[in-house]
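Reopening this one. Same input as before:
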Amino acid sequence: MYTIMYINFMTMRVISSAELRSNMKKYLDLATREQIIIQRGKNETFRLTREEYLEPDEDFQRAISLDEFRQGAKAHIEKLYSK
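Same output, byte for byte:
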């Protein structure tokens, strides 16, 4: 048993966890082109989607750590308040 919903032109299937167990390959293949929502009981839902691997690019190479960001932000704020 499953339901197909159309939200913002994106196909989404809602299936039970038992349906996923029975047809795992089918739903993993479908997840490459649409979202699969797995309903487990009355109160739990999970989303199965394909995760894309992103190649590192120029933006990634110049990224800074959170600590570097904090230090830079602190220095910038101190500079603003010293004026």
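So the earlier flakiness isn't reproducible anymore. For the record, Helices lie at 17-22, 24-30, 58-61, 66-82.
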